[in-house]
Amino acid sequence: MRQVPIRPSASGGRVIMGAPRLSGWAQVVTLSLTEITSWGILYHMFPVFLGPMERDLHWSQASMSGAYSMALLISGLMAIPVGRWLDRTRSPRALMAAGSFLGVAALLVWANVTSLPVFFALWAVLGVAMAASLYEPAFVTVAAWFMQRERALTVLTTVSGLATVIYLPVAALLIEQSGWRTALLLLAAILLVGAALPHAIALRPYPVVPHPESRPVAATISPWCVWGFWQLVVGFTLVQIAVSALMVYLIPYLGQQGMPATQAATASGLIGLVALVGRVIATWRSTPQTRAVMTGVFFLALALGIVVLTLIHGLVGLALFIALFGAGFGIYSPARAGLVADRFGTLVFGRVNGRLALVITLARAAGPAGTGLLLLRGASYSAVFWLLALLAALGAGFLWLPYTDLQQM
Predict the structure, then answer these.
(1) What are phi and psi of 211, to 5 degrees?
(2) pLDDT tens profile 263-320
(3) Which of 128-132, 173-177, 328-332 has the lowest mean pLDDT?
(4) Three-state DSSP class for residue 45
(5) Smallest Cα–Cα separation from 160: which of 322, 249, 30?
(6) How far lies 405's CA from each of 27, 144, 215, 217, 409, in Å?
(7) Is 98 exposed, middle or buried, given 0-12, 13-18 or 19+ CB atoms closer than 10 A?
């Protein structure tokens, strides 16, 4: 393979001279595969461990969800320095490899945990690992490699969307067969092979290209002062609260309805499978002019799915919920990345996306924590789910509001 020469840029980054398009797709393929493992193990599998750990260690689900929410909070706080670091170094390799190795170490500690304070400490470490290895650095990388990024983002988020389909049932099966501690040891080994090593070996610096859509004016304006940014903040935050809370408490809710844990985990995993369809339809066909409207439509379907779950019990209601909620869940991540790039370009993508990710991750932490608190205070699942549906519907409506493009400022 021919070498790609690199020279320093005026901003302190690196410019890849004549970087072949194939190199960008190689990065997309690598990140797509590693994100399956990273999301599946570091983020999605947590609810499967709530029941077994509660029975074994006699810790409340609310306290364990508190550690999880704290990790999400830390992940959000780390999003801004992560974005700045990527904009400066123009390479995801060291950051994502370090985050994955850190995640492996935390899982090994989790497999031997007996103390709640230690559990909180290891989840603080996992919060750092998530910030360094999940979508934020992956999105920055894809945005930097491609001027027309819709298909690349679709591939990345569609393939990585298999995380719930694969790892929720796998985690449940491993726990059932060998116990939750041994399951964590096996999952740590999978994270090492499936994410940490590929990040360290296969990721490359990405090009600094002065695309016309890079919008240099964005570098001189703080996103906190731009209405189009706050529109994304409010819309995606409200939906994220609903999504994060639902994904954490769906399995306990289905268990309360009498569904076995393995089947409940499989049903939850099917959301990720349906999300692939919504993700392909919405992102493959959307344009900068239609992306916000289409995203709002899918978010409204997500809200309707929560209502269906609340009103219609049994397999029919569950199937309708998975179809509607999964479609909205699928568009969330690629739409967020696409809208940031549409409105701010790629030169400051890391910084803008980091600020948005901070607020959204705070919402991701608040959703499960707030839901756990409401349930502890005696609220029913039905009442909480109605509230989540309302928040998602408001988020959808917010994205339909008009905004002023940076090019018009």
Answers:
(1) -65, 150
(2) 888 888 788 788 878 777 766 677 778 889 999 999 999 999 999 999 998 889 999 9
(3) 328-332
(4) coil
(5) 30
(6) 30, 21, 11, 11, 7
(7) middle
